[in-house]
Design goal:
- The structure holds 2 protein chains of 2 kinds.
- Chain A contains 11 helices and 2 strands, in the order H-H-H-H-H-E-E-H-H-H-H-H-H.
- The longest helix of chain A is centred in the middle third of the chain and has 31 residues, at 154-184.
- By secondary structure, chain A is mainly alpha-helical.
- In chain B, a hairpin with a 2-residue loop joins strand 4 (61-66) and strand 5 (69-70).
- In chain B, helix 5 packs across helix 7 (147-159).
- The termini of chain B are far apart.
- The chains are: A mainly alpha, B alpha/beta.
- At the A-B interface, helix 8 and helix 10 of A face helix 2 and helix 4 of B.
């Protein structure tokens, strides 16, 4: 019944070069690398990108364990992608299941797709594992700032994300507590059919919603009491600034583009 | 023995950088019909300990026996354990969910598979123990009640399962002094009239001093002191070292003793203390009268 296996978006504190990099740099670099990953067509390209990301993991010093953990949640999607490609691509057949024929070309294509997915997860995890959620949303807000000229609510969006991220662990803890309280009253969440189990969740969901609304009210009140009135004229305690570490991103972006063009 | 805990250790988030060892070889036992107070400062492992008593948490090592059965052995059923050991969490009003008070209190008994007549009786009895007017509020929404009433409804929800042991984790947390006294008075009644074995978890010395027959003091995941309130409170220096204090009446008793006034025994309530002081004062004026000063 433990719910702490939420690995995506889990920040591992540290002092590596990746940790010290400005969040804006990380977001931009990530965007560049992700775009390049979608442009690559050959296996060589994937190999080159994989090497780059392995170097990234080594620099970040977060430990392979956490990277692998964030991959686990996508296992089903990966398996699904592979099977879909294997059966849906035309070519020389390997075996058949009913009307479906698995092909060599499909298997190859599927494998590359799975590798692409893995690499995508690694890139994004490298960012989320080395950047605290608060810094990340700060960076995002700054990057989206130019869009506010055309009415895009960049500050509000960033604030919403910050609050949502801030309350995920709180809600997880709360869920755990309420589930335990109802289990102490004989509730059973693990047996019965789907309908029965969904019904069994009601005594957990209702108190959870009630407390989420209460917390939202309290938070709104606390923010107003501190004169929060949106992003206008708001100053920051910690200003983001580019440093020499950020220059590291240049070779990374250059390498990715080179790979995308050549491979 | 109703509950026996032997060498229980427990670590939250074991194997991750966030690992936190909360229980470190805790040993204790609770007899049938006892009123035991468990005290310790925040983070000493009290709440984690009581969650082991009805099998909500599984110890990393050590055994938990309820009514002579190891609850994690193959034949034991956790559902049965939870029928015997009722646990009222801290801020239990946060777990209310049903549309009506009666429906919420009936959640536990219904999960036990009792027939509706029996459920009805139990709901009535349980609400009676915690001083709630069954007829007046049974059909109201629990969410529109006052804070104190909500907490009582939640407590009734556990009592309605008629457990042999009722564990209450900080039942008076966040209540005003009057509400505190009422709730604790009801817990006294659960023990005296209801015949429940009661385990009261608290960090307030005053509360446990007044109500519990035996105290268990936790520090850093271990049981460090055990005995009657007077025995435990006589170790004032050790308690202070653990970030705990003694009740104000005991402090007064010690202060008077240091000044050469010895009260007949350690007072546990303000009433007792006042009575003893009055007695000595009366005796004192008599003596002085004789001395003719």
């Amino acid at each position: 019944m433990k719910m702490s296996s939420l690995a995506i978006g889990q920040y591992i504190p540290g002092t590596s070069a990746l940790h010290r990099m400005d969040p804006r740099t990380k977001i931009l670099t990530m965007t560049a690398v992700v775009t390049c990953l979608f442009l690559i067509k050959s296996a060589w390209g994937y190999a080159a990108m994989a090497a780059l990301l392995v170097a990234g993991i080594m620099v970040s010093r977060v430990g392979l364990r956490f990277i692998i953990r964030s991959m686990r949640s996508l296992l089903v999607i990966m398996a699904f992608t592979f099977v879909l490609h294997m059966f849906m691509t035309e070519g020389t057949g390997i075996f058949r299941v009913g009307p479906l024929i698995a092909t060599y070309e499909g298997a190859r294509q599927g494998a590359l797709m799975v590798i692409r997915l893995i690499l995508l997860v690694v890139v994004t995890s490298l960012v989320t594992l080395t950047t605290s959620p608060l810094t990340l949303t700060d960076g995002l807000e700054k990057l989206l700032k130019p869009l506010s000229a055309i009415g895009f609510p960049s500050h509000e969006l960033a604030m919403m994300m910050t609050i949502a991220l801030r309350f995920i662990p709180t809600l997880v803890e709360e869920t755990d507590k309420i589930m335990k309280a109802q289990m102490a009253r004989g509730a059973d969440f693990s047996s019965g059919n789907l309908v029965k189990r969904a019904k069994a969740m009601l005594p957990v969901l209702i108190p959870l919603f009630v407390s989420a609304f209460r917390r939202a009210d309290d938070l709104a009140l606390a923010m107003e009491a501190r004169c929060y009135r949106g992003g206008k004229g708001r100053t920051r305690l910690r200003k983001l600034s580019f440093g020499s570490v950020d220059l590291l991103s240049l070779p990374v972006i250059a390498f990715s583009i080179l790979v995308a063009v050549l491979a | 023995m109703m509950i026996e805990i032997r060498g229980v250790s427990f670590t939250y988030n074991a194997g991750s950088p966030l690992a936190r060892k909360v229980l470190d070889g805790a040993d204790l036992s609770i007899g049938k019909g006892e009123f035991v107070g468990i005290i310790g400062r925040t983070g000493s492992g009290k709440s984690t300990l009581v969650q082991h008593m009805n099998g909500l948490l599984k110890p990393d090592s050590g055994t938990v026996m309820v009514d002579g059965v190891d609850i994690w052995s193959k034949g034991a059923k956790l559902q049965d354990v939870r029928k015997k050991v009722g646990l009222v969490f801290q801020y239990p009003e946060h777990q209310l969910f049903d549309e009506t008070v009666a429906g919420d209190v009936a959640f536990g008994p219904r999960n036990m598979g009792l027939d509706e007549h029996e459920v009805h009786e139990r709901v009535k009895d349980a609400m009676d123990i915690v001083n709630l007017d069954f007829e007046a509020i049974k059909d109201r929404s629990p969410f529109e009640l006052s804070g104190g009433q909500k907490r009582r409804v939640a407590m009734a929800g556990v009592l309605a399962m008629k457990p042999e042991v009722v564990i209450l984790d900080e039942p008076a947390a966040g209540m005003d002094p009057a509400g505190r006294d009422e709730i604790l008075g009801e817990i006294d009644r659960m023990h005296d009239k209801g015949g429940f074995t009661v385990v009261l978890v608290s960090h307030s010395m005053e509360d446990v001093a007044k109500h519990a027959q035996r105290l268990i003091v936790m520090d850093a995941g271990k049981v460090v002191l055990e005995g009657s309130p007077r025995q435990v409170f006589s170790e004032e220096q050790r308690l202070l070292g653990m970030g705990l204090g003694v009740p104000q009446t005991v402090r007064m008793y010690n202060m008077l003793r240091n000044r050469g006034v010895l009260l007949p025994e350690m007072p546990l309530t303000v009433g007792q203390l006042a009575g003893m002081i009055m007695e000595i004062a009366r005796a004192g004026t008599k003596d002085e009268g004789v001395a003719g000063r």
